[in-house]
Every structure is written in C-alpha cells, then in structure tokens.
Hints:
Elements: H1 5-18, H2 22-25, E1 32-37, H3 44-56, E2 59-65, H4 77-87, E3 94-99, H5 103-110, E4 114-118, H6 122-138, E5 143-147, H7 158-166, H8 177-186
Amino acid sequence: xxxxxxxxxAQHRAKFRKxxxxxxxxxxxxxxxxYPGTFDPLTNGHLDLIMRGAKIVDELVVAILRNSEKxxxxxxxxxxxxxxxxxxxxxxxxxxxxxxxLLVDFARQQGAKAVLRGIRAISDYEYxxxxxxxxxxxxxxxxxxxxxxxxxxTYVSSRLIxxxxxxxxxxxxxxxxNVVERLKRKAPGKV
Length: 191
Ligand code: PNS
C-alpha cells in the first residue's frame, strides 16, 4: 500500500519548508508567473511569448510597468492594458495588471514564483542576465524563465515598431490586428 495523497502532500510541504521554499509551495503547487514589460505597443513577438508561457504555467500575469523611463510613450498605460486584454481574451489563464516599483515586490504580492522574459538574440542576453541576477539578489526565491519567441519575430521590438510607425512605415504584420486599429486611430493615414 502506498502513501495516501494527503500524506505525500504533507511530506512535500515539509520538504519545501525545510528548504525555505514554503512561501511559494503554499499555493497548492500552482505555478504563477509574471511577464513584465513596457509593451508600448504590444507586438506579435510579445503575443507569441505569452502563448508559449501560458502553455507551461498555470497562470500568467502580463504586467505593464507604469513608471517606465523609456521616453515619451506612444500609448498610455490604460490603452496598453486594454490592447493586451483584447489580444489575450482567448487565453483562460492570462491576466493583465500594472505595477510600479520593484518587480520582485510585485511578484511577491501576486504570489508568483517566476518571471518570464523573452530572449530574441544574443544581444538581449547580457541585459536580461543582469536583470535576472539583480532580481535573484533581491529575491532568491523568484526564478527567471527565458523563452525564445518564434524566429520570425527575432527583429521585432516595440522600439522599432514605434520608430517605423512614426515615420509612416507599414508595421501592420508585426503587431496584433487590434493594435493596428489603435495605431490607425493615433495617426490616420499611417500604418
Ligand atoms: O519591456 P522592457 O522595457 O524590456 O521591460 C523592462 C522591465 C519592466 C521588465 C524592467 O524595467 C523592470 O522590471 N522594471 C521594474 C523595476 C525593477 O524591478 N528594477 C530592478 C530589476 S533590474
């Protein structure tokens, strides 16, 4: 006769507590991750990563940084929130939130045990590694998961999309349809 499920769960919980992992293990082993970013605007690369992340965690929170220092934004934070909600409406385990301050604090508030970040090319790696290590220093229990978006998105970034859009270039195949609509409303005639 094996152990009952309850006894096994109790054993697991004791092991996690002993290793100092108790804080996260309390949530019945549900894996919640945060996908943080500026998302100005949401791109097809972001959406691809959200789909990939949502397949491997129980709950994925797409979190928009409110106090980004990345220059003049194209979309307000509420607009970005709406565009991500619209584009991810079909995914049952994806939610959208905003945060400011430290990412590790937001992750702790959310009960998340991982941060999801996309790596498109080696050039992303250095910055991402620094951020991941800093976050680990700030909260050793929060893990960073790196995933690669589909290869057709390796050159797609919000920064480039904004730049091309502002100069009248066609970015309609690089962002989700609802973002194309919002871009058109920002500057009719472009897109
Ligand atoms: O889309 P981005 O601009 O690459 O996202 C960067 C983001 C939002 C993930 C990063 O700037 C962030 O986490 N900011 C919150 C402040 C923080 O926690 N800083 C310490 C980690 S280096």
